[in-house]
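Narrative of accomplishments. A recurring question from our advisory board has been how the design workflow behaves on a single, concrete structure rather than in aggregate. To address it, we present the structure tokens for one chain from the evaluation set, followed by the sequence designed for it. No filtering or post-editing was applied between the two.
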């Protein structure tokens, strides 16, 4: 089963667990199954039916351009990351 790594700001929804194994063939399926064992987590990561603009999904160490549609394997690691923007403000 894929392992979903839980960011610290969501670990209150997982009973303090930093990783949870769930079934799923895509990031969306894994997230739907994570919601079943950790109610409320889906609402914190999604806006309607999409990842929130400030959240990215990484599968096996790579930011996924497909987001929720990215396929995962039973040995995959899924991370939900806060998108970081910034720069030198025109400097």
């Amino acid at each position: 089963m894929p392992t979903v790594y839980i960011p610290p700001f969501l670990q209150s929804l997982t009973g303090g667990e930093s990783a949870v194994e769930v079934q799923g063939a895509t990031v969306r399926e894994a997230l739907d199954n994570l919601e079943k064992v950790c109610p409320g987590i889906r609402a914190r990561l999604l806006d309607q039916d999409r990842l929130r603009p400030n959240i990215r999904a990484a599968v096996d160490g790579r930011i996924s351009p497909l987001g929720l549609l990215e396929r995962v394997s039973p040995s995959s690691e899924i991370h939900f990351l806060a998108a970081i923007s910034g720069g030198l403000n025109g400097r």
